Amino acid sequence: xxxxxxxxxxxxxxxxxxxxxxxxxxxxxxxxxxxxxxxxxxxxxxxxxxxxxxxxxxxxxxxxxxxxxxxxxxxxxxxxxxxxxxxxxxxxxxxxxxxxxxxxxxxxxxxxxxxxxxxxxxxxxxxxxxxxxxxxxxxxxxxxxxxxxxxxxxxxxxxxxxxxxxxxxxxxxxxxxxxxxxxxxxxxxxxxxxxxxxxxxxxxxxxxxxxxxxxxxxxxxxxxxxxxxxxxxxxxxxxxxxxxxxxxxxxxxxxxxxxxxxxxxxxxxxxxxxxxxxxxxxxxxxxxxxxxxxxxxxxxxxxxxxxxxxx
Length: 311
Prior knowledge:
Blueprint lengths: L3 H13 L2 H8 L3 H15 L4 E4 L2 E4 L1 H27 L5 E7 L1 H18 L3 E7 L2 H9 L5 E7 L10 E16 L13 H6 L5 E4 L5 H12 L5 E5 L3 H9 L5 E4 H5 L10 E17 L6 H13 L8
Helix pairs in contact: 1-3, 1-4, 2-3, 5-11
Protein name: DNA-binding transcriptional regulator, LysR family
Keywords: DNA-binding, Transcription, Transcription regulation
GO molecular function: DNA binding; DNA-binding transcription factor activity
């Protein structure tokens, strides 16, 4: 009989590539992971792994077993959801992942809704970078997570996960008050709107983030590579830099609002662009009908800001 816990290890190895990475993600020692995978190979009766330098590659039999493991783990999530549904009332921890610009305008009102409708739940919020969301959901560190994507940077499909659209918001070019007004011919044309600032210094998020990649790709689509002066992840600080004449930036609607009623600095001009940022709610595959996950989905849908509702 194949052990489900060992199947999880094999699935994570297929995604992370090294035993050390699996051990770190699951809080095991590398030797413990190796031992459990060796036991799984004996249970399977065929080689599942091949070593190539520091990496471990799955054999064809190993890859096939991972496909079956995905189906088994999804069925277990569905079973857990049905069992939870049979209990009376929702209680216990609900681990929520989010990104900074969604915390104040979306997560906080969602928490208020959950507290009102399901007082037995204990929401636990964690801000997390998108690259870590998949692993955190699969290992149970998170139950649901807000993730985002841009027109030029779609979210790749993650094995073992499912996601559903939550809301989308427009993108803006943020400039200071000295910027020349947008002409009628430039309005609504990405290449024209960004191309007029090809010589300006740009403010982006840190390299490796979706926001940074989005800015670079949008500018490249307009025919140039941005000359980056500042790299700042906080949109409120980005707008302050723009107001100080330090450069121009691309910001989404919720980033432009800064999560506060005051909005951006009065000296910042925001020009709408034909670009969108979409936010999705992700969870483990098979968990969509879990009562706690369903409650979280309903609370987040009710909390979507009016400015973004309906796109």
